[in-house]
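Good morning C.,

I know you're traveling, so I'll keep this short. The sequence:
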Amino acid sequence: GSVGGFMSSDSRIRRKSIYQIGTDPEGPGCCAMLLAMFSLLLIIATMPISLCMCIKVVQEYERAVIFRLGRLRKGGAKGPGIFFVLPCIDSYKKVDLRTVSFDVPPQEVLSRDSVTVTVDAVVYYRVSNPTMATNNVEDYSHSTHLLGATTLRNVL
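The C-alpha cells, ready to paste straight into the viewer:
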C-alpha cells in the first residue's frame, strides 16, 4: 500500500510487471525476421503465377459458365470481361455466342419414282443460353450436327 501518499517500492514493481507480461524487450529474434522476409519474398515471387491462375478473361462474344466443386455458381454465366476463379475448386467452360454454320453431309434418298437423289444442307445455330447449353447437353455442337443430318433424312 501507500504510506503518507508514497507507494512502496514493492507495489511499483508489481504494477510494472503486470504491464510487461507478453512483451519482449529485445523485439523479434533473428530467426523470426528471416522467416518473415522469406515469406514476403515467396509471396512476391508467386504473385504473377497466382494471378494467371485466378483471373480469367472472356471476350465480348463469349460467356463463362463456372462450377464450384461441381455445382453451378449463382448468377449464371459470367462475362464479358474479367472474372475470378479459385484454382482447384472452380472449373469453367467458355461458350461461344456467335452464329456457327456447318455443312450437313450429303444424303442419298430414293424418291417416289425410284430415282436416287443426293441432297445436302447448311445449318446455322447460335447459343442463346450458355448455362442451359452446358448443363442440359453434353456436347451441344455435336448434337446439333447429328440433329441436322437426321432432320435432312426425315424431311425427304
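Safe travels,
E.
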